[in-house]
Amino acid sequence: MEDVLKEGLEYVRVHKGEIRFYGSLGKTFFSNVGDDIKGKLWEFTDLKDVLVSGYGVKPKFREIATYDNKLIGGFIEVLGSNPVNKSKSAYYEILAEARNAPQDNVSNVYMYLNMGFVSLEKVMLNWDPLVNIDWTILDRKTDFSMILATRRAIRHDVRPFSTFVKKVSVSPESRAISYENVMFPKTGDMALEVKSINFKQVSKFQLHYPFVAEVARVEKLKIVEQPNSNKHTGKTGFGNIHYTIEIYNEAHREAFKKNSSLGSGEIASWTVDSILGENPQRSILVEFVKTMLLLVERCHKVAELKSQQAEENQ
Question: Which pTM does this prediction carry?
Fold first, then answer.
């Protein structure tokens, strides 16, 4: 873990853009499980060397803490009662295909739209996951992953984004969002086409310093095309909902902000030691892993209790 994170952090010191290093609660799922594997009891030590390497089983970590509205309440309780801010932040995360000119290739972009006053906060390219360290705990309800990822921002004050935001409207009551895709006037080709919209409500909780838990309710909006119009509407209350729980170090987030303004050939002032802790102890990394393991254990107890209560009520 230390070696791969060290290599990844050294690499991103010259990255101009957004950097995230966080722990995520979720669950590891396994695909490509053949009949010769099913129905047998395997030792945990066989998971990597035998099942993955030998039989070709493919593990994949899913960054979803739960789909259960009641269970997430129990998870939040174990985070403590110390919210970083009293009110939730809410915004729309819009995935679209966009290009600046008809001859350009389309790129996937993520547009972040404030709900309170309709404006684009930022437009970003896809996340580039540099390090994914999945911590699979077979006898617990949740696993976790340590993730280091980067992405680049692109200008949002130019077409087609400036044109798109002019045609967006949001209803504060229903939280529905209406928009129009953007066409090139001369050719009629698509300049920006929305593919999906997530409505996110985020709450933050201060754990023991410097760790913060970020809980997000994510609803994938149902998009309908308005009759006799170019307008589309994303409606809340009809889409699939899931919850994520991410843990990050406040000091890391502050340090990584400096990468957004790096000049050409410039290296960020933070170091691997300031992120992971001095070698060889790496005390900051150790404390991060301990925090994730403790959270997994507490959430497991909540999930077990909910399961017992459900069985008793049947």
Answer: 0.92
Residue 149 pairs with which residues in a beta bridge?
20, 129
Dist CA 26 CA 134 (whole Å): 10
Q: How high is the pLDDT of residue 46?
A: 77
Contact 285, 6 (CB under 8 A): no
The parent domain of residue 110 ranges over 2-313
**Chain segment 28-65, per-residue pLDDT in tens:** 998 888 888 887 777 777 777 788 888 888 889 999 99
Overall number of domains in the chain: 1
Question: What is the SS3 assignment for the chain?
Answer: CHHHHHHHHHHHCCCCCEEEEEEEEEEEEEECCCCCCCCCCCCCCHHHHHHHCCCCCEEEEECCCECCHHHHHHHHHHCCCCECCCCCEEEEEEEEEECCCCCCCCEEEEEEEECCCCCEEEEECCCEEEEEEEECCCCCCCEEEEEEEEECEECCCCCCHHHHHHCCEECCCCCCEEEECEECCCCCCEEEEEEEEEEEEEEEEECCCCEEEEEEEEEECEEEECCCCCEEEEECCCCCEEEEEEEEEHHHHHHHHHHHHCCCCCCCCCCHHHHHCCCCCCHHHHHHHHHHHHHHHHHHHHHHHHHHHHHHHC
Q: Give the CATH number of the domain where residue 18 resides.
A: 3.20.100.10
User: For the packed helices 283-313 and 69-78, what is the interaxial angle rounded to 10 degrees?
Assistant: 140
What are the φ and ψ backbone dihedral angles of 306, each rounded to 5 degrees? -65, -40
Q: Beta strand 211-220 with 222-225: parallel, antiparallel or unpaired?
A: unpaired
- The per-residue pLDDT for 37 is 85
pLDDT digits (tens, 9 = 90+) for 207-241: 999 999 999 999 999 999 999 889 999 999 999 99
pLDDT, tens digit (0-9, with 9 covering 90-100), for 104-160: 999 999 999 988 778 899 999 999 999 999 998 888 999 999 999 999 999 999 999
